[in-house]
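Weekly modeling sync, notes
Attendees: S.R. (lead), two postdocs, one rotation student

Agenda item 3: backlog of single-chain predictions. S.R. asked that every request posted to the team notebook include the full sequence so nobody has to chase files. The rotation student volunteered to paste the first one in as an example of the format we agreed on. Action items at the bottom.

Example entry:
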Amino acid sequence: MKCFNHPEREAVATCQKCGKGLCRECAEKHSPCLCDTCAAQIQRDRQQQAKTKEEQRQQKYKDALVDTWGEFIKTAVIGIIVAIIFLCVPSLRADGLDGFGDYVVYFFLVFCIPFGWKFFTYLQSFIPIFLIGTWWFWLIYIGVKACLSILVGIPCFFYQLVKTILTQRKISKLK
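Predicted structure, as returned to the notebook:
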């Protein structure tokens, strides 16, 4: 058998992909033993796979950024609903709300509770709390979590707001 590229030379190997005969010079060009055409095709395939993988990584990143915006909106809507409930139910409303300003401050404080709740739920994922315990344990646990959510709700809201704004800037730069 003769070399595919050099018909005057004897083939000492064959391309592992297509089976073309290769002389010693052609056989030593690529490892594993491939003809120039097959080696170039494999290189193009690898580049295409790398490009596709990078595009998938970028799309996954964009999807995660968009999810951040959706999560913020969802938490804000929950906060608005909770604040309206607290303002409409007299037994839940704080006593001594005199003017419009008091209602706005109270509304904002209650509005931020879901942001604090999400923060503590995130922290809870690092500390396993088993599904054992009495109903008293769970009642106290939820009460403590709610009180702590009130305390950290406002800073968590502003953190999430800034994070969402920065995320939207990243999304607009990616487009």
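Discussion: group reviewed the output briefly. The chain has a mean pLDDT of 85.
Action items: rotation student to repeat for the remaining queue; S.R. to check formatting next week.
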